Amino acid sequence: MKINFRLLCSLLFAGMFLVSCGSKKNVITSKRKSKQKTTQNAAVISKEVVKATTTSTPRGGNKVVNYIDDFKDIAVQEMKLYKIPASITLAQGILESGSGSGRLASEANNHFGIKCHTGWTGGRIYHDDDEEQECFRTYNNASYSYRDHSLFLKDRKRYAGLFELDEDDYKGWAVGLRKAGYATDKKYPQKLISLIERYELYRYDHMALGKSVGEKPRESQKNKPFVLEKQYVVVKGDTLYSISKKHRTTVEQLSKLNRLKSNELSIGQLLILK
Length: 274
Hints:
Layout: H1 2-52, H2 63-82, H3 86-97, H4 103-108, E1 124-127, E2 134-137, H5 142-154, H6 170-179, H7 188-198, H8 202-209, E3 231-233, H9 240-246, H10 251-258, E4 270-272
Antiparallel strand pairs: 1-2, 3-4
Helix pairs in contact: 2-3, 2-5, 2-8, 3-7, 6-7
């Protein structure tokens, strides 16, 4: 009986040892699977972030239309968040960045010509503007430039009056931006309005506000504070000669009005006709 009891104890001890070892192996296997799954998820998230924040590649055709197609959704989203007309944001982007082809846009992702100003701690690029080698902000992605543009207007007191206008009053915004000192060009409001109406950018204001996209824009609350000059946006195939014939003027007159140094034109360029 003693021998059987010892044998039984030995068998029970061996069984407990094997069960204990098996349990430890299961825990280790589980941790490895969990770690591998986490790594895979991180890789997927990284790809999505990169895809969402990558600027679209240039395409052929009208670069203004391509620019609008690339950034209209961002402009609408910014309008929903910060109450700045998407039409104004897009028109400023087109004008300030040369439809994305200007140096500040292509090298610094700066689509709105925003200068460094006091307190800016981000990247910098130096570019001739009102003065030589002025400091401008740089961004890792063009979408960050759009967000900084919204914050730039929203956080400065000199633009506070603009936010009292109706959200789709792009004419009031165009005039107000110039008066608040956003640009030194006296024709800045007219240029913005010309782009908005030529490319019907006010549709994106309606989209952000949940209105019918085909609805016609309302008159500005400013009661037409200025008279628009007759202007023309250059399209593919245009020359100064063809434009002058079409609008009953001369090449010399167009060159003088627009202070052109040569007869070369670029698609999207804004010309004053009268």
